[in-house]
Batch of 4 targets.
Target 1
Amino acid sequence: MPGNGAVTRSTLRQQIADALRDEVLAGRLQPGCAFTVKEIADQYGVSATPVREALVDLSAQGILEADQHRGFRVPEYTLADYRAMIEARRLVTDGMFQALAAAHEAFREADNPRTVALLATVRRRGEEAQRAAAAGDLTVLIGYDLRFWRELSCLFGNPYLADFLHRLRLRSWVCAVHHLRRLPDLRGRLWAGHTELVDALSRRDVAAAHAIVTAANEHALCLMESLAGP
């Protein structure tokens, strides 16, 4: 059984990772911002080990990247990177929808308790995301949007695909957030079709769900292209 020190270090590691991720997504840590393990450890008043582990975790997720000269830095993603992320998201979700249409018997059963309960939970996440989008509250939207897609991905029955999609969407937000936060008013600018997607899946209308996701990707790309230039 691990001792209290191991538990504390693991807790610190997660707390530091969560705090730094929130700083990046809030736009307070700008692209290109670099720092060392020691600087973060001093800032939080902790030892270097949980900080180093947290930074490595965030680098694996694409929220930070290793910098041989400074330790770690916030990635400077380009518009080309964002286009590639959207394309990767499309390929993943296209495969998921094909699997649903072809072979996901649990999804086909209208009264399947697990599917009904999962869709109800995901819909609540979607409602919160839509409210945040309508209000232009980017911080709240990002949190609920990530949870929405993470939970929705469970429908497809492949945890590896779900995790990959989550990382793609997280990187997409990291790429987009500093552009979006420069806008004085985000109301009406952010995609808010979450419940529409859930309703299509609840009807087992895979074609409609696919069309909604395609439109969402196109909306995200058009918005970024308008903000980030050619």
Target 2
Amino acid sequence: MPTYTHDGLTFDYFDAGSGEPVVLLHGFPEDADSWDQVATRLQAAGLRTLAPEQRGYSPGARPPRRGDYTIDKLSGDVIALLDAVGLDRAHVVGHDWGAGVAWDLATRHPRRVASLVALATPHPVAVLASSWRSGQLLRSWYMGFFQLPWLPERTSVRVLERTLLRTGLNPADAGRYAERFADPRELTAPMNWYRAIPLSLLATDRIVRVPTTYLWGNRDPYLGRVAATRTAEFVAADYRFVELDARHWLPQNHPDAVASAIIDRVPGVPRRTGELATP
């Protein structure tokens, strides 16, 4: 597996296919393998996929302090990947926390983002704006819990697999993530993404000005309709909202829909929804 360095850290990443580049950013508690089904479909359509193991997940990129996980640092890791492989810009796709990084990239570094496809996670300002006017605050209760030291790690290892299965993830991936984080100490770095939220500063211009598609599952237990629909208010470019009859785990459970939405954003690549089966 190739690696690149940034901020004194070493990141693993997958690089496959050829053509227009697409960066795939995983969420919590996932890894780059969560994109396997989507990536093979994109490669079959003539695209190049780059899927990094992000900060806190890659073995050589697990700094100990929560201040090492602010959103600008997470976005900087992706810019460093583009620089390392010699790309001026790429189509950026993110799921869950990866979508949070993708939103920030599109506002902080718009010239490096050819298009944005966000899965599950709405625009961050839409989430904030909806928190007091909907049930979003209750849906996000765990973010407050994760601010505590050590207790969330010890609690989560006991319920992680059960929680993932209950929220719709397939048993194979749920078991793999639970095994990966069986030691509570392994969860500290991924949870520092949440703990760094109070330290993170959003980009000065919070409006996205690149072509954007947002996919949302209408049975997502974590992210509600109000924030999903308000996301359109924060995109000043061609915008598409795709509502799926789905839960949270879109890359794993709905790879055809995800791949089609990405392909639709790449000029010159015809939409081939019926031909997206893995080779």
Target 3
Amino acid sequence: MTLLQSYKSQLEYIQPSPKFKKITDGQFEAVDFPGYTVITPPKEEESENSQFYHRLQKCQEQLIELLGKNLMIPLPSNSFHLTLADLIWESAFTNASQNNPQFEEKLRSCIAESFQELSTSTNGHQVQWQVFGIVVMTRAIGVCLVPKDGSSYQQILKLRRSIYQNPNFIALGIEQQYHLTAHVTLGYFGEIPSNLDIPNLADQISELNNQWLEVTSEILVHRGELRKFDNMIGYYRESDWPVVNL
């Protein structure tokens, strides 16, 4: 995913993100896109990984300069985070909430159960993942991560299994998200110019990507939190919502 050829092929298929709409020239706003997720604490509430997020902010600035704000809609850096487990979003969440007034309460209860199960099996090993490079997705751009060691991989695998294999969670009818491409999103695609010079842009992204080969950039995944979102620029929680220390 971080090879030059991958950038060239993926840039052929990029699309504007439906999670944003254009309001003025060069200005986009987030549209309603509600749901729940399990993530690491967002940058604005994270003290353990300040250097990691500082580097990502620098990478985002370089990508904005390279792509321009019409092509790339930058996310607020305070919202940067690593998604540990997607849960439910948009129409699936809206429909579930309307059909079951207790849906959100039950969802929070299920995640609390899963976190409780997981907390009894933690081994005290630090969970660390590291940036592997810039990744171009269909509607977004960011950096992808790989586990630093086997134990760091296994702990995230346990977290996801504890959620997706929880019988009470399954009973809520939520589609299981078993495949994980660990990444931090830096921005979404806005307007795609018809004359986009894909070979040149791919070369420039690849050149920028080489920076990640020079210095190892790691995130300490020390905590997972259930968070709610109304759109793609803010993630919030109440003080009594479930969390798990990893």
Target 4
Amino acid sequence: MAPSPRFSVRAVSLAVAAVSASLTMNASASMGNLGTTYGVMPIDVATAQSLSMFNDQVSATYYNPAALTKDTRGELTTGILHAEQELRSANPNANGDVLANSPSQHVLIGMKTNLGSLTRFKHPIYLGFIAGVEKYGKEMLAFNSQTSENGQFLQYGKEPLFLNVGGATPLWRGISAGLSVRVTLDATAQLDALTYPQGEPVERERLAVNAEPSMKTILGTTVDFGSTFCPDSDCFLDGWEAAVAYRTKSSASTTVDSNVIVKGLINEPGLNLYVTTIDSFQPETYSFGLQYAGDGWRAGGVIEQQNWSELGDIFASDTVRSQEGFAGPKIEFDDILIPRLGAEYQLSEHFALRGGVAYEESPLKTTRNPDINYLDTDKIVVGLGISATYDRTRLLAYPVRLDLGYQYQQLQERDFTLVDYDGNETDVTADGDVHVVSGSITLKF
């Protein structure tokens, strides 16, 4: 290993090496992900996730796996998502008010198939998965957890690997149930090193890295009231559907445990450096959706309960975000209720137009959180999209569908107090704009 001119640089390099051996260190800190921050597929983006619980695409594995049963055909979907963010903080001590503007760029692939044909019972069992990778497929893993003097936004960071796998089956007369898992990584790194001061080479070192998958459950149920209560005749319940979904809390985590011995300066047992932190936290979520489908149109909405309050307790054991030793209230989060409304209209046999709106209250309760200096605001989300279906192609037996979605998020102004490492306070106002564009192509089989 190449020598370093100073021990302080060397010690920091060793600690960073333990993390970067398993995860690259170039992503912004974040407590959000692709599915909840923007939407997975163009339909989710365009409707502000208001109709996501009733969509038959593979993104249902995240929002409501029971919806995989809505189309009996298999599916292969590929797509891209590009989000441009301008997150601002009006800080009198800063040069400019743009705090973060790094784009999020995902490439997505998903597939659904019926495994029922493998059994003698012929009962349909649908399996679906969807994966997203950052930087259009070039970055699968990244992690960054940090303190900040200038402030950092709670959400809108990168989550390079988005992975969901699940299945669903019809139960009885319009009632379907599904289960899926969201996969994240829990990484640990152990580093032991013996070196000399004044930049002499390392004499002995050992680095061990381990990353284990962590699987968090998503449950969903869909009820078609017309098929359930009046399957053999017309009734006023025809066209009405309800869905309920539950997602357990999840996050990615990294733990670094290192021991450094420096001859003549730090003798055995050495200097212990221990860091444990989380990223991409997703709260426990309950969702209830209702939809009505008419002749060539549908409209619906979702009420989403996100339980963020337990994140404050989790931060107490996070060595990066722990606020032990700081005077005043510790960082706190509120449980929030998010309403979403959307509609879709069939313009013609081949084209459909859709849109949606949502209001998302900020879960961040405290406006003064020293050292971390998180910023987060309420936001208004508006989406619009279109799809085109081609029935006849030269090679394929089933129609091909193209989807485009656009979403605008307006972050409302909110005042915060930043506290730097010396205890100095600065009043700032946070706001921002986010533009999201998504496209996909879907093949049926």
